[in-house]
Amino acid sequence: MNDQDPRQGPDWVEDVKAEVTGMAKEGINHPSTKPVLTGAAIGAVAGIVLPVVSWPIGLLAGAGFALYQRIKK
User: Fold this and answer.
1) How many Å apart are CA 67 and CA 21, to the nearest integer?
2) Coil, strand, or helix at residue 10?
3) Smallest Cα–Cα separation from 70: which of 42, 30, 36?
4) First and final CA of the chain: distance in angstroms?
5) pTM check: above 0.90
6) What is the distance between the alpha carbons of residues 12 and 2, in angstroms, rounded to a whole number?
7) What's the CA gap between 72 and 42, in Å, rounded?
8) What is the pLDDT along the chain (73 residues), one digit of tens a residue?
């Protein structure tokens, strides 16, 4: 039996692909671009402040988290 929420299934890969493709095509006009860039900036700043994490890792983590939050909605 598959009692999972449909958004929890393997379709999230397609959602990510569609979202990233849309952001690449539409640029700053895409509704997800600004939140993802903001998340990347916050992650980069956190990476600079934290002694164990470098800014590129923080940037990727922040962008990934913001993209996840957009797709989860």
Assistant:
1) 12
2) coil
3) 36
4) 25
5) no
6) 16
7) 20
8) 455 555 556 688 888 899 999 999 999 999 989 999 999 999 999 999 988 889 899 999 999 999 999 888 7
